[in-house]
Amino acid sequence: MLREAMYTTIQTLFDKGYNKTQIAEMLEIDRGTVRNVLKKIENGEEIKRKNVASILDPYKEIIHIKIQQELSAMRIYQDISEETGYTGSYDTIKKYVKKYKDSNSRVYMVNTTLPGEEAQVDFGYVGKIPNPSGDIKKAWVFCMILSYSRLMYCEIVFNQEVRTFIKCHENAFRYFGGVTETVKIDNLKAAILEANFYEPIYQREYEAFNKYYGFLSIPCRVRTPTDKAKIESGVKYVKNNFFKGRSFNSYEEYKKGLSNWLENRCNSRIHGTTKRIPKEVFQEKEKQTLRSINPKGYDFGIWTTRKVNVNCHISYDSNFYSVPYKNIGEDVTLKISDKLIKIYSHYELIATHIKIEGKGLFSTNNIHYPEYKVKTKTQLQYEYRQKMLEIGPSALEFFDKVLDKNQNHWGKPIYGVLKLKDKFGSDIVEKACKRALAFGSIKYQTLKNICEKGIYEQPTDTGVSLISKAENDIHRPLSEYANLLSLKEVR
């Protein structure tokens, strides 16, 4: 199939008076090809451009993902060369990345929200000011804005750590009197560990915090100002309208001044976009839609990881705490607070324990074990008694005598009897139990010999007393046991 340019060349030469043979010789193509092209042109057929495969076709999906991760063209080239065996040039990657970015950066949608649906948060650097101790330190302003009413909360901070970030959230919720359904956050290190729009890895403490207050946090895409336009404008406004050109002598003066500015200027002016006063819109339409605040503040803790041992416990501070048996061998996450230890698996709470005072102690919840591991002695006795009853009345009597003789070590012999049933059948084991009981024996080995040697049908009436005359002694004399175990015929 010829390229579009070749069709145009053939038509141009033909229009200039060259015949088919001359055109074929000039272009070094077959004369029949020239004839077919001229025929298509004469019939008015549309000449379509041939779709030429690109060396990037197998890699475009990967390239798109890496562009979303804000990787440079050089980094994308290096990654796909190492990971996929791409053999093309860097320039090809560079041109495609530029073309893709240009084609996806022109159109934006207006993000509208319902009352109580969304808040946006961000930090803005405001220079060096006095901290509560009087030292001059770098400072930021934390801002949260309600996307519907544009009501805003601001607070001066001196770091962007997780605890500060969460405390600012709580203060904002109390200022608004409630919690929105979602909070849109910038890709701050305090909340987001990896800036990936599709699978953000939330900072563990912040993830626990938003679950505690019942809101969903949504990270903004990197370098996409339209995702957080409201808070971008809000931070810019507070920096230019309050901080710029103002200087106070102490942190308390800054704090008081910012509070007055929020109340009397920021939230009381006619907003430039909505053309309404944020405070009025909030009172009329948004305040009642907010979710109620948890009256007890969020409990910060220490986070660490432990591996679940085969005994269904993890170790912390020389004490042991149980975990569901299905998590054996797994690395789980612990949140340690003053009184509680909460254990998580992939952000799901799987166990809670009261923190133990002391060393070498266990906190065990029996539901963390398999059911068969936590049955009571009575339950086990009942289950095995029913199994022996299914064999027959003599087997049941055998069980009762074994249990009566030794309350704590009846399990192994009875388990052995049930294994004999699996091998020989209930009928033979029932007869073997009857014969062993007739000779006063309640030993598993006696039953096994009777079954294996097939003497369960032999008579038991020998005219000789088989039971020792000693009071409460159900065993036969040793000579008679010897005869029984050696399987000599009893006459």
TrEMBL record:
<protein>
    <submittedName>
        <fullName>IS21 family transposase</fullName>
    </submittedName>
</protein>
<dbReference type="InterPro" id="IPR054353">
    <property type="entry name" value="IstA-like_C"/>
</dbReference>
<dbReference type="Pfam" id="PF00665">
    <property type="entry name" value="rve"/>
</dbReference>
<comment type="similarity">
    <text>Belongs to the transposase IS21/IS408/IS1162 family.</text>
</comment>
<dbReference type="InterPro" id="IPR001584">
    <property type="entry name" value="Integrase_cat-core"/>
</dbReference>
<dbReference type="InterPro" id="IPR012337">
    <property type="entry name" value="RNaseH-like_sf"/>
</dbReference>
<dbReference type="InterPro" id="IPR036397">
    <property type="entry name" value="RNaseH_sf"/>
</dbReference>
<dbReference type="GO" id="GO:0003676">
    <property type="term" value="F:nucleic acid binding"/>
</dbReference>
<dbReference type="GO" id="GO:0015074">
    <property type="term" value="P:DNA integration"/>
</dbReference>
<feature type="domain" description="Integrase catalytic">
    <location>
        <begin position="111"/>
        <end position="286"/>
    </location>
</feature>
<dbReference type="Pfam" id="PF22483">
    <property type="entry name" value="Mu-transpos_C_2"/>
</dbReference>
